[in-house]
Amino acid sequence: MSSLKLPVSVLTGVGLQTVSRLHKLQLYTLQDLLFHLPLRYEDRTNVRTISSLIVGTSALVRGRIEQVAIMPSGRKTLVCHINDGSGVLVLKFFHYFPTQYQALKYGDTLQCFGEVRFGFNDGLEMVHPEYQLLTENEAVVTENALTPIYPNTEGLNQSILRRAVLQALQRCDAELHDYLPDNLLQHFSYPDFRSALQQIHAPKETIHPLAFQRLAHEELIVHYLSMRCAKLQAKRWQAPIFHANKKTEKVFLKSLPFKLTGAQQRVIAEIYADCESPQPMLRLVQGDVGSGKTLVAAMAALLAISNGYQVALMVPTELLAEQHYRNFSMWFAPFNYQILFLTGQLKGKAREQGLKALAAGEIQLVIGTHALFQEQVQFQKLGLIIIDEQHRFGVDQRLALRDKGENGEMRPHQLVMTATPIPRTLAMMQYADLDVSVIDELPPNRQPVITRVLPTQRRDEVIAKINDWVTKKRQAYWVCTLIEESDVLQGEAAESTAHFLTQMLPKVRVGLVHGRMKAAEKDAIMQAFKNHELDLLVATTVIEVGVDVPNSGLMIIENPERLGLSQLHQLRGRVGRGEGESYCLLLYSALPEMARKRLSIMREHHDGFVIAEKDLQLRGAGELLGTRQKGQLRFKTVNPEQHGHLFEMVSEWGNEVFTAAPENVPLLIERWLGSAVNYVEV
Ligand code: ADP
Ligand code: MG
Fold first, then answer.
1. Domain identity same for 122 and 163
2. Domain span at 167
3. Which of 85, 96, 223, 632 is a Cys-bridge partner for 78, taking CB atoms 3.0 to 4.6 Å apart?
4. Ligand lying nearest the CA atom of residue 291
5. Are the C-beta atoms of residues 321 and 347 closer than 8 Å to each other?
6. How far apart are CA 163 and CA 379, in angstroms?
7. Using H for helix, E for strand and C for coil, what is the string for 428-484?
8. What angle do CA 481, 484, 489 make, to 5 degrees?
9. What is the pLDDT of residue 228?
10. Does 22 lie in the same domain as 57?
11. Domain check: are 400 and 459 in the same one?
12. Most informative mutation of 548, 569, 572 for ligand 1 (most atoms within 8 A of CB)
């Protein structure tokens, strides 16, 4: 067995308690330890002169004690001045023992190590440095290498972690092979894999400036390769061949009140071409909010159904499922298709009947939430899976649904849609297992939503604006945001806002939707809003995805500073769908610098891709890839902020590895992803 896979418990000095703390850091095997990289280093190799100290760095200093005192002001502080001939450094201790104070004597020599900061009177100081008293001619104790400082967790100290990593390095030494092709290493002047790791964990004199980047680059390439493998593997499956049915298409398109945009037509053609081949389609459709992705989905569904196959359409919220259900029922009315609406709310007899009909092939299209990949849901002949707003789902959920359609060598086609445009460089990484189509055109006559950023003190003006707006027979949204992810609190906040607005606006018919309401209740309210029996819809961010009511052209978002830009862009996408001007008022309560910058991006830009790029520049890739992109990419050594420039080249170099050293690909994947790769395998 490879040493790399040994559990951390094999190391000396690593007992049960340390094991559990290492596990907390996601460190299970020796290999994990090797990829646990230092955050920074401390330099105890040289004594620095006080005059050469740099604020913000740590340093080792030696000097003579010039002054020792307890400062009585506020909390008692032990203060000690040392002088090394080049300058004076002040040491401060807020906690100390009396013996400590007594031991520090005027004229004695002391060595200390700590972070240098500016103190009072612009002097340099260290707070709670490590220190040691030296006899007059005793040399300072230096170390002969930099000391790595690792990310750690409570109860686990640096020296234990350091020793564990060093042992891991020793035991695995013979296995630290280079799997990247030479030309890549030469092109970037990278050190080899083994010396990169050694220099990082056990530095001698210097660390190769590219040692960290070399690891990050390898890891990025491996992510790309694993996705490419997943794609290649998926393409080896068989899929049903769908032939276009011109007559059905014509009937469908004729019933629409508008013509498809050029971009919609192009993407539909790409989908149809995919489905004419006997391999499963794996296509992502990216299109800004309001670009008309639903129709593209409908055309794809039409293709599968008219070829005698079933279609599953999965969406992240019940609200959106209901809306799609209504739209598809209307669009497919000429064809007499059976459509099932399946969410967690469908229970009892109705559910039983629905599932039975689905398994018997009497249902052509099922629309639902993640309830779709429960075990009891069986298809007779699933030919196409469509996932809308895919960024809300994890990779594993996407794959679970794909398995539903497994039938011998046959797999369903897959269409994935997302409105959260992420910058191209990130998209190439994240969706390397998919072919990508972009709807880069909005339906005609759309006007940019006029966006204003206002302090919450101007709420009264905003309320007056709603009154005017509604008098003109138009509708509006009022979106409440809360920091807490709790549905209950969000619901309560929305309720009290709805109550308040009802009182302030006696002539306005106010409705309320939030995540805690029963599906039937939500449905009734949404339907009433759509039918213009309500003028103002107060909502939580549940309406963020997909909701479509063209007459509603005014949106107020409370505390927009709490939301990410792409989420704001999605919310704002609910308006500007009909005729005439539309507005989005961002009603903030507190606006620190960063938030101000972000909201002004919303005011100035209307293209989701541009907004995503700007957001990337402001916040860095870490956050963009982080919280809202569930279950997608998790890195060990890549820091998207530092290594962003490598993303762009990753497909190029990844393909190079494929051609130059295909035999290394599985080894690389094993090294970096180990068993985690199972979830990208198809
Ligand atoms: P999204 O891409 O955000 O899912 P939708 O599919 O909800 O967008 O479409 C937004 C709105 O645009 C809907 O009201 C839809 O009926 C309308 N729409 C879609 N395609 C066209 C088109 N080609 N011309 C005019 N309106 C369209
Ligand atoms: Mg949509």
1. no
2. 1-39+150-172
3. 96
4. 1
5. no
6. 55
7. HHHCCCCEEEEECCCCCCCCCCEEEEEEHHHHHHHHHHHHHHHHCCCEEEEECCCCC
8. 75
9. 82
10. no
11. no
12. 548
For residues 575 and 469, what is the distance between their CA atoms, to the nearest angstrom? 14
Question: What CATH number is given to the structural domain containing 581?
Answer: 3.40.50.300
- Ligand 1: residue whose CA is nearest its atom 9: 292
Highest mean pLDDT among 43-52, 201-210, 470-479, 616-625: 470-479
Instruction: For residue 373, tell me if it sits in a domain.
Output: yes
User: Residue 591 and residue 455: Cα distance in Å, rounded?
Assistant: 9
353 Cβ contact list (under 8 Å, min separation 6): none
**CA–CA separation, 286 and 288 (whole Å):** 7
Range 614-617 contact pairs with CB under 8 angstroms and sequence separation of 24 or more: 614/565, 615/564, 615/565, 615/566, 616/423, 616/426
Substitution candidate for ligand 1 out of 252, 267, 285, 295 with most atoms within 8 A of CB: 295
- Angle in degrees, CA 93, 97, 100, rounded to 5: 80
Same domain, 589 and 462: yes
- Please check whether residue 620 lies inside any domain of the structure: no
Query: Is residue 118 domain-shared with residue 63, that is, in the same domain?
Result: yes
Whole-angstrom Cα distance, residue 272 to residue 33? 48
Query: What are the start-end ranges of the E strands in 223-319?
Result: 282-287, 310-314
347, 375, 383, 407 from 379: Cα distances, Å: 18, 11, 10, 10
Nearest to 169 by CA among 193, 205, 142: 193
CA atoms within a 13 Å half-sphere pointing along the CA-CB vector of 217? 26
CA distance 339 to 328: 8
Using only the alpha carbons of the chain, give its radius of gyration.
Answer: 31
Q: Tell me the three state secondary structure of residue 227.
A: helix
Asked if residues 214 and 642 have their Cβ atoms less than 8 Å apart, the reply is: no
Instruction: Provide mean pLDDT across the span 108-129.
Output: 87
- Write the residue with the smallest CA distance to atom 14 of ligand 1: 548
| Total number of domains constituting the chain | 4
Find the range with the poorest average confidence among 191-205, 236-250, 367-381, 410-424: 410-424
Which residue owns the Cα nearest ligand 1 atom 4? 293
Pocket probe mutation, ligand 1, options 260, 288, 291, max atoms within 8 Å of Cβ: 291
Place of tokens 């042992």: 167
User: Burial level of 137, CB count in 10 A (0-12/13-18/19+)?
Assistant: exposed
Query: Is 219 a member of any domain?
Result: no
Q: Ligand 2 mean position to 381 CA, how many Å? A: 26
Asked if residue 631 has pLDDT above 50, the reply is: no
pLDDT at 549 over 60: yes
pTM: 0.70
Banded model confidence at residue 76, pLDDT cuts 50, 70, 90? confident
Residue 435 confidence (pLDDT): 87
Phi-psi region of 473 (alpha: psi -120 to 50; beta: other; left: phi over 0): left
Binding pocket residue ranges, ligand 1, CB within 6 Å: 258-261, 264, 287, 289-295, 419, 443, 546, 548, 550, 577
SS3 content of the chain, % helix, strand, coil (to 5): 45, 20, 35
What's the pLDDT score for residue 626?
40
What are the two backbone dihedrals, phi and then psi, of residue 253, each rounded to the nearest 5 degrees? -65, -35
Element (H, E) at 635: none
Any domain includes 682: no
pLDDT of residue 72: 78
Which atom of ligand 1 lies closest to the CA of 573? 3
601 shares its domain with 493: yes
Token digits of residue 103: 């031991």
Give the residue carrying structure tokens 């978002």.
557
